[in-house]
Amino acid sequence: MWNTWLNVIFAYFLTSVTSARPNILIFLVDDLGIADVSCFGNDTIKTPNIDRLAEEGARLRHDVTPDSICTPNRAAFLTGRYPIRSGLASDRGQLRAFIFTAASGGLPQNETTFAEIASTGGYKTGMIGKWHLGLHSSSNSDFHFHPLKQGFHYFYGLPLSNIKDCEPGQYIIELLVPGLNPTNVLTAGAIIGVTLFICYLTGLFNKTAFILLLTVTALISFAMSTFLIMMSQFNCFVMKNYDVVEQPTILENLTMRFTDEAVNFIRTNKDNPFLLYMSFVKVHTPLFNTRPFVNHSIHGRYGDNVEEMDWSVGQIMAAVEELGLKENTFVYFTSDNGPHLEKVSDTGEYHGGWSGIYKGGKGQCWEGGVRMPTIVSWPGHIPTGISLDKLTSSMDVLPTVAKLTGADLPDDRVVDGKDLLPLLTNQTQQSSHEFIFHYCGNQVHAVRYHPKNSDTVWKAHFVTPKWTEGTESCIGKSVLCRCHGDRVEVQDPPFFMT
């Protein structure tokens, strides 16, 4: 009899605790500029679903990242720690992110992610989209850095990113060796072959030497061009958990498939608390759209991509609302870094975003590269339609998730992020951050200082990139601005701004 009552009481208590904990939905967009969405000042690109999130929650207008490029910022986003702490702050010039799936590095397993925090609290965790934090370590089957080894129960997406290799005729290796592509390799082979033939005709080679050299040239040209083609295939594939389900990646309807996967994850886990990390490959280049969104905006292919991404947000939020989960779902929307200002297509069309009133973009520590269009919504807890100018960081997600799930933060390391809830729920009017550092690779290029009991935030720039004249980018010089050497200018004394 007593056992029965105890079981009933325990079940009631467990249900009450579970229902009190919100679902967590995290949207991370790729290369979205702070002024690319309507609610942050864009009056031509239409983003009604993102705008609705802002109307129902809070816009964080001083939300910044510790770096300004994909891989290090994603490491910081997941762990709440500066990327240099996890070894993902590179000094490799413009190659400060993984560009090959076969790279042997990644987010260390001893780092704690917000997925692991939620998982220990009984949440079902899923990730859809772009990972970009490594895959294998010492073999092509150890999956050492895979999302399922980092706290996620389900993964559907790209282990790398949406890179040049995913677009026919484009090759990421050209970042390392300009002009190294199959067409040029075969052309070079043909030129060498003609040269050998001329040498044979003029008597410089006998017939045997000519045939031997021509055969070697043909074999090398064919092997190298085949390798380059295959390497691009190896970089672009879709995984479902540990299985490759598509190779090469078909871009056209990828956002639609990601959206369906996200909705299915929510439906499957509607009766339990869940954390879903929706990591868009949009609006990173190469740009692509499903047919209904081709020529959908007045801003060319980039605008089409932003508007399709907004549609996806709307579909996922509609599923949350349809299932009656909206009132108990914490939603966080942001970008990983600023817009890629150097991106211009072969036809001259600009394929990057907009930083609005802020200087610079992706790859730079100017505001356009590190200040994000962040929105947070949680009905009944966060006031609606508010705009906060307090200093916050993308690293704040992990400690906020810990608070929401009732889990403890790891006590064996420094966590640089701060719990956002006191600020979002009006328990405090002050940011918990005193300093936030902005890295370019493994070097600090700028720092923010927020004096305690003050609303002022100072920013000091120690190093700034040398822009191409007449621009706020390094277009024509490199794919991204560099971090050191003759491509930067040391500010001595530092350049201060508020």
Radius of gyration: 25 Å
Strand order of the main beta sheet, please?
Answer: 7-6-5-4-8-1-9-10-2-11
Beta-strand level of the residues, as a percent range? 15-25%
**What's the helix count?**
11
Helicity, as a percent range: 25-40%
Q: What's the average pLDDT? A: 93
Distance N terminus to C terminus?
A: 68 Å
The structure class reads alpha/beta
Low-confidence stretches: 1-19
Topology as a string of helices (H) and strands (E): HEHEEHHEEHHEEHEHEHEEEHHEEEE
Number of extended strands = 16
Q: Summarize the biggest pleated sheet.
A: 10 strands, mixed
| Broad shape | globular
Summed up:
Helix content is 30%, strand content 17%. The protein has eleven helices and 16 strands.
Structural description of this entry:
By secondary structure, this protein is of the alpha/beta class. A ten-stranded mixed beta sheet has the order 7-6-5-4-8-1-9-10-2-11, sandwiched between helices. The radius of gyration is 25 Å and the shape is globular. 30% of the residues lie in helices and 17% in strands. α5 (182-201) packs antiparallel against α6 (207-235) and α7 runs parallel beside α8.
